[in-house]
Amino acid sequence: MKKLTSVVATLALALPLAASPFAMTTTANAATVTPKATTHALTKATHLPAITMHAKAATTLNTIHFAADQAIAFVSPAKAKLSTKKTYTVTKTITLATGKHTSATYYLISEHGKALGWAKATTMIKKNAPTAKLKATKKTPED
User: Fold this and answer.
1) Torsion 78-100-106-56 (CA) sign
2) Within the chain, which residues score under 50 in pLDDT?
3) 89: which residues sit within 8 A by CB, 6+ positions away?
């Protein structure tokens, strides 16, 4: 009985090791399918007080990864899109340079506090401050 349990235990421990070379090749292929990221030089990064903004049109968000030892940003499109009906909060802004052109990019947070990603500053507009409506009153001549 002891031999049978030791054989079963050995097979149970050896089975994951035998299947691991097949699992490694499938994850390596899945990693190469991701969309290609473009490289930009990072020229400026600043933190902002929370600013509420809206999207001008339904545009795609970006995912940005930063290099640890250089001022380089790798920009790739995300699956999420901005909605024109929602309010977003901007907390950070960066300036990316490509050749002679520079563009500002905002870091967006949803109304519920969830980090969404990065969007170009040209696709966002500031939320209009509520304007006070003045009520016209008639002056009556005092007798």
Assistant:
1) negative
2) 25-33, 129-132
3) 50, 51, 52, 53, 108, 109, 110, 111
